[in-house]
Amino acid sequence: MEHDAQRRNSVVAFLVGLVAFPCLAAVTGLLAIPFAYAAGAAAGFVVWVPAMAAPIVVLLRRGGRPRGLAYGMITSAAVCFVAAVGVLLLFSSGESPEHQLVTIASHSSTPVYYPGPSFEGHDFDDVVIFSHNSESGSEADHSFDRGDRLDVGYGSTCGSFTGETCGDLIDLQMYRRTLPFPPGYCAKRLDGPRGTILVQEDSGAWDAFTGDLVIRVEELDKQGMVDLVTELRVAGDREPTDSQLPRPSATMLRWVSDACR
């Protein structure tokens, strides 16, 4: 009888542990959020994981019913981990950003440029087309057409604690035959490297004009924009070429002249 009672107690403790772990993960996750916002997602994980593990280790060392509780929590953690990985794999496109960019370039009538797999120490991690410059990205659109905006991101700030407020440290916004700022908002115009024209907006953002394209970046200064243009290569190429980029089209030159009077 005593043995049966101990077994029942262990089973009950195990079942309680299954339910307790998600609660423990939620509470410790809330405690880790301030660290994630202050120092990044990695710091949040450094706080979150030990905070979750410590109670489980203590329960394991105590033995008896507490150990059954710990086993239930460990099983629940494993199930949650497998489920999270499964969801990520299910909703992941499976394509690297570089492969996505090459696909877009192959369906577009104009060259698509980017500064390589990394820029200023940040990895290329995101590519999104905003059809007709809409407010939300389109996963179905694979061609960069006139009126579209193509965003190429470097240095993702997204993580488990950042929600929908994350983005990229450097975001290249590319436009086709579209002026990304209203006339009169041009603060400075100068000749850029490789035959481009550089324009600084009143807001401080920089624009590089080549062919019928405009590449707009808010996060770089003048030297950073020069470095960016120097590193530009056609999507899929591993190294930039020494050749000049296409001169801005007559239409783009006229728009720049009108905007920068």
Describe this structure in words.
The protein is α+β, with helices and mostly antiparallel strands and 261 residues long. It has two domains: 2-91, no CATH class; 99-259, no CATH class. The protein is 45% helix and 20% strand. It is built from six helices and ten strands; from the N terminus they run H-H-H-H-E-E-E-E-E-E-E-E-E-H-E-H. An eight-stranded antiparallel beta sheet has the order 2-3-4-5-9-8-7-6, sandwiched between helices. A two-stranded antiparallel sheet has the order 1-10.
Give the tags.
8-stranded antiparallel beta sheet, 6 helices, 45% helix, elongated, alpha+beta, 261 residues
Q: Please tell me what the overall shape is.
A: elongated
Oligomeric state of the chains present here:
single chain
Structural class of the secondary structure composition? alpha+beta
Fraction of residues in β-strands: 15-25%
Sequence stretches where pLDDT stays below 50 over 5 or more residues: none
Based on DSSP secondary structure assignment, what is the total number of beta strands?
Answer: 10
Q: What profile does the largest beta sheet have?
A: 8 strands, antiparallel
Tell me the strand order in the biggest sheet. Answer: 2-3-4-5-9-8-7-6
How is the secondary structure organized here?
Elements: H1 2-39, H2 41-62, H3 64-91, H4 97-106, E1 113-114, E2 118-119, E3 122-130, E4 149-156, E5 168-176, E6 186-191, E7 197-201, E8 206-210, E9 213-217, H5 222-231, E10 233-234, H6 250-259
Antiparallel strand pairs: 1-10, 2-3, 3-4, 4-5, 5-9, 6-7, 7-8, 8-9
Helix pairs in contact: 1-2, 1-3, 2-3
